[in-house]
Structure formats: structure tokens, C-alpha cells
Design a protein that fits this description.
Chain lengths: 480, 444
């Protein structure tokens, strides 16, 4: 295989230049992206990139270099630069990096894909976006719309100086749309299905067909208009049931990011902040109520964070993060896991050949409870049912949060009431999860994929899925 | 740097020669970056990247298609061009296609001065000095040193090719003081790496982390506040993104929509976008190939302008101001103001504290988010240096605060501006801003 040969050139140079460990990723990325803005096609593009990323451990310090040049001379030059950067890092490296265990693997992996999205004609994709635009704009108060569709194929080859050789082929498909209504001195938006840019997963064009953009578009336009005259959300402390379209984002920010072990050890402290979920709490700290069971699972079929092996060659796996409310695990890597006496949970990913792998969420799940959704609502006397994340602000250590929801409904005497807008809520992370007293069952379990969770410098977009059923939280502070 | 400006021109001309489309535009961005991240007084990530991204857009019978690659051999260029043409054939026709940059619009200047090589050893040396400064004060330093330089080439079949260089260098320093449980912050940006004041940033972060904390809760409500340059830059960026792009302005969804010439903010607020000001990190040409222009966004509180690219300007009979973003955009599509300059005031930092007397000093925000586009209500929290000011002096550090406040309200109650603005890291050219003393900052 050509990639194996290319990787071999790099690994040889790294070893000769003094690297104790090196790994190489040779990646070809194919991408199609379509976007419409108020009925005009604003993007219709096909891209392909190829390149090599080389990571080395030299004198106990990391170095990394990347380039598009895959000629022998180019690869060897990039390898020499990676070692040089590692030697520079050693100037400010009082503690040497120690790598934890990873199996030596020769394997290949491919995500299932029923309908190859790159074989579907672009005009069909454009037609779907434009039909959805028309259907959203039936009311003249919908002043603007947007829609996007994205297809990515990643051919990834990983090789390490330890002997692993892994080929992976990962296909992603996704789409989403937004209606913006203006009137009565107000501006309101509805996103479909969530505001996470698009609904994306690993798989083919079948994911786009399942979304039924055109069928849902009239409702999205109508709801944006209804929000203009919807009543403001009541304020005060109340019980709130979160729809999965909102809870997915809440889980992401105040359970997912908190349990990234590089963040816990300060790797992101100067940028997006740290985490209060430190290892001294592992196995003992009550993060949430006994109803709260959160896990990561990079083997989940169709998830956007699904793969065979991470970018350190560690196999995909399912791991508990919070079990019956207690903090029990982390997203980790070969460098961070040994610091808590464990093996990597296989979460190192980079968003391209030219990016340094960092710990990313994969697919995270709030596991279903045993409440039928209707019974959970019927059991709530007065409160709110809130849907779709609108804005979010998380404190530096992720111990406090402020969110707002795109829309919601009042709950009166166990029944959904009128639509409400501008619902803001805030609280303390631990109090929030501890107040969870009901998670709906698997019948209302939904999975949403976020194509680019931002983390790291340089900024990297990580593909992640989140799955949950509606869940109820008691006595939450709602309003400004 | 992988390619010289002449080599970039040659690639652009090769693509234009290959193309049989009615109109063709080709962009080539060649960049080199050294990014060194550190935490706990040690480097934990260090990388050097040489990259190149070529994008082609073609227009055939009013239909537009685009394609991209990072491979520049003739075969790849031809393949990319063919992909763009295929996409265009399948696109719906545009009613009135504006085409690509014409000769009268294209940037005509020189590419800019030659680049020095970026040096990962020098970067690591800077981090070692910062870490030693922190260690000497029994603190832990964290942050990022990012050095980058770029050459952007744009060629169109109507106008030929142009190349322009830019560079941006950023340093952030977070000092954590375990003894007090406090942290301090400083960030700087400069066009040339040797102008990054690393020593000053380290000293400033350590100084801010040295104030004794008091863990008393502040009651929710409105407070007088001085926003340090980083906090001010954060809200100015949000303001620019939500209010001063021609896309949102003409769609009617921006606060400023239909309010050109109206006084929306206090008379002491003058905000410009100036990609040419040498106090910032200059960029000469946008992604349409148009020279970047200075635009006054707010003049003494009055809305004066928004930024355009060709796509938003030409259908309205306006001229592009040279603010086109790369296409396709990952997010934030449309023209953006990203070389912001807020006019300075008359007060030193000490005088601003004395003028406020009693209130908050906020160094930096975390996760600011737009809650309501109608009155620009934002939410977020403070971090790395939130202080209580008493009798015109910083009295003690405070725990981080949550806030939910209206930017319109805040920028109508600016009581004083600092006279010593700083260039702090921002999207492209950074944000050049003084400290801001405002009333009515609402914490919750």
C-alpha cells in the first residue's frame, strides 16, 4: 500500500533523528458542501486534500509537523522538522512524557454506508435544499433561511514506530436548516433539527433521506413565525423537562467536556478552561442523581464519533463516565490515562492530517430511564418543556452554566400548554445533574451529531454525537 | 514558506489558462505556522505546519460551482478545475450573476515585505522564560504562542492575479496562583514576532494573579465596571459580528438594520475596521481579491457603515469594502469586520479606577454568547482576574461572576475610556482597544 510506504519513509527518519516514539497519519479527505441562503445557492463545492502529520516523542517531549508534500524528499523533510520541534519542546519540559499501553494492531475498518453520498448527483442535493427553502418561506414574515448539506470521506492510514498499521474509511453525511422570522419588533429563529449546525452522522445519503428536510420545512417556518408572538417564558424556579434537541448540548458542555482528561490536567486552561471533575473525585464524587448514567461509546453504529481506532491506534470502546450519578471515568489518551493508573479510552482525534491529535468526545449518551415520555410530562404539575439550544455560556471550570432555549412549552397540570420564547436558565453543574429525577425510556431516545465541536489551538472541529431521551430536572432557575 | 509570491502567481495563471469556463476565480493560500502551547510551566503541544489551500470557482451560463485541493501539480489543478465545472453544470442558474473581480477592483499593490523563517526554538525559549517567571512567583503558567505568516493569491479570468502577504503573532499568558486560588491573564498580538512583549505579558499575568481573594458573593444587579482590553475586545467582536456585516444588515435581522445615521450608542464610542492600520496586523486583500478598506462602523455613537464583500455589495449598487471571507465558510458566512479599532479616551488606567471609585474590574470573559439579537443581550462569565475596586484602587480579587447584560445598554453608559489601547488577539487582525469604564453591567 502506498500509504504504508510513505509512512515508512517518515518513521525511518524519525528513528534516525533520535525519536523514541513516532506515529504517522496519512490522510485523504474528500468533502462536498452545499449551502443555500434565502433561496440562493451560496456554496456548491467539492474538495480533496491529502497530507501527512508526523508526531514524535523525543527527549520526553512532543513534536509535530505536517505537510501536503507526499514525495519521499518532502516526507523526510517533514519528519526532520517534527523531530526538531520535539527537541525545541524539550527546552521547557521538566516532566518527561510517558506513553501508556496500546495494542500493536494491523487492521482495517470502514463505517457502514448504504448510499454512497458522492454517487448521488449534486443537483438532487441542491434541489432538496431549495425545496426546503421554499417550504420554510410560505409566510412572508420568514425573512431569511439557510440550509447546509455536507458529505465527508476520510481515508486514514495510521502507522506507529511500535508496529501498528491501521487503515480506516469513514463516511459522514449531514444536513440542517434554519428559518429566521422578523416582525413585531422581534427576531426569532428555528433550527432543524437542532442548532448544532447540521444533523450529521457516519453513513451515507440515507441519513439525508431520513431527515426529510422538505417535509419538516413548513413546520420550521411556521414555528419561527409563531415565536414572534409567543409569550415570554415565565421566570422563577421551576421543574423543567429537556427535549433531546436541547439536552444533547447541555450534556456536551457540562458532562462531556468536563470529563476530557487533557482538560482536567490543564491542557485547555488558558483557552476554553478547565474542569472541576479532577481525578481525586474519581469513583466517589456524586456528580448527579442515581438516574444519571452517562457513557462514551465510539462503537455506536451511525454515530458521528464512531470509528475503529483513534488517532493513537487505540481501539474504539464503550466506557462509563458517570454511573448511577458517580464520576467513574474519563475521555483519555495514552499520555493522560497512565497519570490516573488506567489505559487510554481511545479518544485522541485530529480534524485533519495537519492537526495535532487531542482528546475529543466521541459519542456520549445519557442512558434511557424507565419513564414513558408522556408519563414524565403528566407527572409534572407546573413547569416547562424546553427544546433546541439557543445560546450557552459555561464557566471556566465548567461548574456553572447559563443557557437559553429556542422555544418551549409551559406544562400545566401535567399537560403541555402554550409555546414560550426566550427561555433562559442557569445553575450549578452538580446541582443540576443531582436534580434529575426522571429520564424517559428508550422509545424517545434520539441521537444528534455535532460536526464541529471547537477545541484546541489551532482550532479543531471535532465530530461528536450525543444521545439522550427527555429528562426532568427539578427546581431549576429560569429567567435572567 | 513553501512558495514565493511569483510561484503563487504562476500557479494561479496556470489554472486560469487551463479553464474554459465563462469566468474563473482561483485562490491560493500558502501559510506557515508555529504553535506552541504550554501548561503547568511546560510545553504540552508544539507544532509546525506548512500548508497550501487552492480553491477554484467557475461561472458557466450563470451557474456557479467550486472545488478545492491542497495539491498543486498540473494534474491535480486540472482535476480540481473539472470538478468545479461539473458542480457548476449541476447548479441552478443565478438570476443576475455578479461574476468575479474585475481589473478595476483587483488589488494592485505589492505582496509585502519578505518573511523571516519562523523558529520553533525561539518560541520554546519564550515559553521557558515565561514559565521561569511564573515559577519564581510560585505560580503555574499556561497559554499559547502562535506565530503565523501567509501569502494569499487571487486570480480571476477578468483581472489577472494578485498576491498579498500577512502575518499575525499571538501570545497568551495565564498565571495560576495555587497559594491564593487566583489566576491572572494577559494577551498580546503583533504583526512582527519580535514586537510581542512576552516579558510584559508574563509580568502582567503574575501581577493580576497576586491579589488576595475574598470569596464574598455579590448580589445580582447592575454594577459599574472597567473592562480590560481582553474583555472589551470580546464584546466588540460580538458587536461587529452581529451588527456590522452587510448580510445581516440588509436582511433586517441586525440591530443596526435600517438605522444608518442613527445614534444607537454613547457619543464617546467610535469604532472602525481598519485592515491597513500598522498598529494592527494588516491584511491587504480580501478573498474576492479586493483591497481591504477602512470602514467607520460607529462615529461618536452614530451608525456610519457596514462591511461588504462583492456578493453583498454589487446587487445593491454598493462597492465592496474588501471584507470577503474564505468560501465556503465553515460558519459566519458573509463579510465580517475583523480588524477592529475602538478610539481611545483620555484616562490612564489609574485615573479610570479613580474615576469609577467603586465597582468591578474584569480582565477577561469566558464563553460570551448572544442571547437576544434585539437588544444584544449577552451572557457569559468572568475569569482570570475579576476584582472589586474600592476608593479608586483594586481592593481584592473576586470569584468568577456570571453575567447577562445588554451591549446596547452598556455602550450607552460608557463613562470613560483608557488612553493606552492594546492590540489583543482576535480573528484576523486583532482588536485594538483601550479599557472601558461603563455603568450598568448586570451580573446574575
Amino acid at each position: 500500500m502506498t500509504e504504508n510506504k510513505i509512512a515508512g519513509w517518515a518513521l525511518n527518519v524519525c528513528e534516525m533523528e533520535g525519536a523514541a516514539y513516532s506515529d504517522v497519519r496519512v490522510i485523504r479527505k474528500q468533502r462536498e458542501f452545499y449551502a443555500q441562503s434565502s433561496g440562493k445557492i451560496s456554496a456548491l463545492t467539492a474538495e480533496e486534500t491529502r497530507g501527512i502529520g508526523i508526531r514524535v516523542l523525543v527527549d520526553g517531549a512532543w513534536g509535530f509537523a505536517a505537510a501536503a508534500d507526499l514525495s519521499k524528499a518532502g516526507v523526510e523533510e517533514t519528519a526532520r522538522r517534527a523531530v526538531k520541534v520535539g527537541k525545541a519542546s524539550a527546552l521547557a519540559q521538566p516532566r518527561k512524557v510517558i506513553l501508556g499501553y496500546a495494542p500493536v494492531v494491523e487492521d482495517s475498518y470502514e463505517t457502514p454506508c448504504e448510499i454512497d453520498p458522492f454517487e448521488v448527483s449534486p443537483d438532487r442535493k441542491v434541489a432538496l435544499l431549495l425545496e426546503a427553502d421554499q417550504a420554510m418561506r410560505r409566510d412572508s414574515r420568514v425573512k431569511s433561511t439557510a440550509g447546509t448539506m455536507e458529505f465527508i470521506l476520510r481515508d486514514k492510514f495510521f502507522a506507529s514506530s511500535e508496529g501498528s498499521r491501521i487503515y480506516q474509511k469513514i463516511t459522514e453525511s449531514g444536513a440542517g436548516m434554519t428559518a429566521t422570522a422578523v416582525g413585531d419588533g422581534d427576531v426569532q429563529q428555528r433550527h432543524f433539527p437542532t442548532n448544532l449546525a447540521r444533523q450529521q452522522g457516519t453513513g451515507g445519503f440515507e441519513l439525508i433521506e431520513d431527515l426529510d428536510l422538505v417535509g419538516n420545512a413548513p413546520r420550521i417556518g411556521e414555528e419561527a413565525v409563531r415565536l414572534l408572538t409567543a409569550r415570554p417564558c415565565p421566570e422563577g424556579k421551576m421543574d423543567v423537562i429537556f427535549d433531546p434537541t436541547l439536552l444533547a448540548q447541555v450534556m456536551h458542555e457540562i458532562a462531556g467536556h468536563n470529563t476530557e482528561l487533557d482538560r482536567v490536567f490543564g491542557a485547555e486552561i488558558a483557552y476554553a478552561g478547565g474542569s472541576f471533575a479532577t481525578p481525586d473525585k474519581l469513583g466517589a464524587f456524586r456528580y448527579g442523581s442515581p438516574d444519571v448514567n452517562i457513557s462514551l461509546d465510539s462503537t455506536f453504529p451511525g454515530g458521528l464519533g464512531t470509528f475503529g481506532y483513534d488517532d493513537e491506534g487505540v481501539p474504539a470502546q464503550k466506557t462509563d463516565l458517570i454511573r448511577e450519578g458517580v464520576l467513574v471515568g474519563y475521555h483519555s489518551s495514552r499520555e493522560t490515562a497512565p497519570l490516573i493508573g488506567r489505559d487510554s479510552t481511545g479518544c485522541m482525534r485530529a480534524d485533519g492530517f495537519n492537526r495535532y491529535p487531542i482528546i475529543r468526545m466521541t459519542n456520549i449518551f445519557l442512558e434511557p430511564g424507565d419513564w414513558p415520555k408522556e408519563e414524565l410530562i403528566a407527572d409534572t404539575q407546573n413547569g416547562l418543556y424546553l427544546c433546541v439550544n439557543k445560546s450557552w455560556s459555561i464557566s471556566q471550570m465548567r461548574d456553572r452554566f447559563q443557557y437559553s432555549a429556542e422555544y418551549g412549552y409551559e406544562i400545566k397540570n401535567g399537560k403541555l400548554g402554550p409555546m414560550v420564547k426566550n427561555a433562559a436558565f442557569s445553575g450549578n453543574t452538580v446541582d443540576f445533574w443531582r436534580s434529575c429525577d426522571g429520564v424517559a425510556d428508550g422509545d424517545s431516545f434520539e441521537v444528534y451529531g455535532l460536526p464541529f465541536c471547537g477545541k484546541g489551538e489551532p482550532w479543531q472541529g471535532g465530530p461528536i454525537s450525543h444521545g439522550c431521551s427527555p429528562a426532568r430536572f427539578r427546581n431549576l432557575k429560569v429567567g435572567g | 514558506m513553501g512558495l514565493s509570491s511569483e510561484e503563487i502567481r504562476a500557479v494561479l495563471n496556470q489554472v486560469l489558462d487551463f479553464s474554459s469556463a465563462e469566468e474563473t476565480e482561483v485562490s491560493l493560500l500558502v501559510s506557515q505556522e508555529v504553535i506552541t502551547r504550554y501548561t503547568g510551566n511546560r510545553i504540552h503541544q508544539n507544532m509546525e505546519e506548512h500548508s497550501q489551500v487552492l480553491r477554484v470557482r467557475v461561472l458557466c451560463d450563470g451557474r456557479m460551482g467550486s472545488a478545492g485541493t491542497n495539491r498543486l501539480d498540473s494534474e491535480s489543478l486540472l482535476e480540481t478545475l473539472e470538478k468545479a465545472e461539473t458542480m457548476a453544470e449541476l447548479a441552478p442558474p443565478q438570476e443576475e450573476p455578479i461574476g468575479f473581480c474585475g481589473p478595476e477592483e483587483l488589488y494592485q499593490g505589492e505582496p509585502g515585505d519578505a518573511h523571516d523563517a519562523l523558529n520553533s526554538y525561539r518560541a520554546a525559549g519564550t515559553i521557558r522564560e515565561i514559565s521561569e517567571r511564573a515559577r519564581a512567583n510560585h505560580m503555574q503558567a499556561a497559554g499559547t504562542l502562535a506565530l503565523s505568516k501567509q501569502l494569499l493569491g487571487i486570480g480571476t479570468s477578468r483581472a489577472g492575479a494578485a498576491v498579498a502577504q500577512s502575518r499575525a503573532n499571538k501570545l497568551t499568558v495565564l498565571a495560576e496562583n495555587p497559594a491564593l486560588g487566583t489566576s491572572g491573564w494577559a494577551s498580546v498580538m503583533a504583526e512582527y514576532p519580535e514586537r510581542l512583549p512576552g516579558e510584559w505579558a508574563a509580568e502582567e499575568a503574575v501581577r493580576r494573579a497576586s491579589y488576595t481573594p475574598e470569596n464574598k458573593e455579590l448580589a445580582p444587579g447592575a454594577y459599574p465596571v472597567i473592562l480590560g482590553p481582553d474583555a472589551a475586545a470580546d464584546i466588540l467582536t460580538l458587536l461587529a459580528v452581529s451588527c456590522f456585516g452587510a448580510g445581516a444588515y440588509h436582511a433586517g435581522s441586525a440591530l443596526t438594520s435600517g438605522k444608518m445615521g442613527e445614534q444607537l450608542f454613547g457619543g464617546n464610542i467610535t469604532l472602525k475596521d481598519d485592515p491597513r492600520d500598522p498598529r494592527g496586523c494588516r491584511t491587504r486583500m480580501d478573498y474576492d481579491g479586493v483591497p481591504r478598506q477602512r470602514v467607520t462602523l460607529i462615529d461618536q455613537g452614530v451608525i456610519k457603515g457596514v462591511v461588504y464583500d462583492r456578493e453583498t455589495a454589487l446587487p445593491l449598487g454598493e462597492k465592496s469594502t474588501g471584507h470577503a471571507q474564505p468560501r465556503p465558510a465553515l460558519y459566519l458566512a458573509g463579510p465580517q469586520a475583523n480588524h477592529l479599532f475602538l478610539s481611545a479616551g483620555e484616562y490612564s488606567g489609574k485615573e479610570l479606577l479613580e474615576k469609577m471609585g467603586r465597582g468591578l474590574y474584569i480582565t477577561r470573559f469566558q464563553y460570551t454568547s448572544l442571547v437576544d439579537p434585539v437588544d444584544l443581550t449577552i451572557s457569559g462569565s468572568t475569569r482570570d482576574g475579576t476584582f472589586w475596586v474600592e476608593d479608586g484602587e483594586i481592593a481584592h480579587a473576586l470569584p468568577d461572576l456570571n453575567f447577562r447584560t445588554s451591549l446596547v445598554d452598556l455602550l450607552n453608559h460608557v463613562k470613560g475610556l483608557g488612553r493606552d489601547p492594546l492590540l489583543v488577539p482576535g480573528d484576523l487582525g486583532g482588536v485594538h482597544t483601550p479599557e472601558l469604564y461603563c455603568e450598568g453591567f448586570r451580573i446574575n
